[in-house]
Amino acid sequence: MIVNNSGNLSVAYFQSYFQLIMNTRQMKKEEAKHFIFHRFFNQNPMSRGPITYRNFEKAYQSFNY
């Protein structure tokens, strides 16, 4: 997926990305969270701004399995 650095990424964007990562890499949601956090945020939650990080966390919590 291409990431545009301007603007905030939505909860729906991260939900889709979680699904993609979990399906293609056969990861559980916790593993996918670490993978996405490293890839998108470079271990710094504020690197893309607080709204994008909050949406990332909301997307993670939306998965109940």
SSE layout and pairing:
Layout: H1 11-24, H2 29-41, H3 50-61
Helix pairs in contact: 1-2, 1-3
Please describe the structure with a list of short key phrases separated by commas or semicolons:
65 residues, mainly alpha, 3 helices, globular
What do these coordinates show?
This protein is an all-alpha fold and 65 residues long. The protein is built from 3 helices and no strands. It has helices at residues 11-24, 29-41, 50-61. The chain starts with 10 loop residues before the first helix and ends with a helix.
Pattern of helices and strands: HHH
User: Major sheet: size, sense and barrel closure?
Assistant: none
Number of helices: 3
Alpha carbon gyration radius: 11 Å
This entry's quaternary arrangement is: single chain
What would a concise description of this structure say?
The protein has 65 residues and is an all-alpha fold. Helices cover 60% and strands 0% of the residues.
